[in-house]
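Lecture 7 notes: from sequence to structure.
We start with the chain below.
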Amino acid sequence: MDQFLAFPLSTIPYVVITLLIAFTFHEFAHAYVAYKFGDPTAKNQGRLTLSPLSHLDPFGTLLIIIAGFGWARPVPVNRFFFKNPRLAGILVSIAGPISNFILAFLGMVIWYLCIRFGVDAGTSQWLYEFFNMFIVINIVLFLFNLLPFPPLDGYRIIEDLMPADLRAKMTQYESWGILIFLVIAITPLSNYIIAPIYNVGVQFFMTMFEQLLDPIIHVTIGGLL
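Predicted structure tokens for the same chain:
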């Protein structure tokens, strides 16, 4: 069974829980920032909520478990409501990936607190597996969504940074960009283009989190005990 899945079968419950949280906060962040900049579209469609049912795409979620990549339901954004469409567009786009970065960091904080306070030996293994999966998947979603391919957030950020004439030309070729991305993602090309980014990126941020938290949490808890 494992050979047909992107993750070991024993970790699927952790993956599902992580995706419920990660996708929900990602899409909520888009909706919240858009609403704060004056766009009520997502709110009016019931997307300004932390209910996973409003944000999950069943097929996109299943595809992550099977193939290692997928999607949630995109939040509708109407740039007409923005006073400064470029700035608001960039902040709305980047809000989703940033939410995953924050979740990854919070996951590491909670795991460090568990270690420092001494988790029970009987529960440490499943806690480790869950938090490891939670942190890694959220870092991957952060990096994945910043890739400059449509319809990912990274592409939308670049699009908003471009002059109007170049932006119009980019729109004409978006369908080709999506096709190119899918070819890269579902073929062995991903092993040479996308996988190295993930491997380096995940290790970089995991190390960064550890270097930040080691002295802080050690001192804090040392003062509490």
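Points to note: The radius of gyration is 19 Å. DSSP finds ten helices and no strands in the chain.
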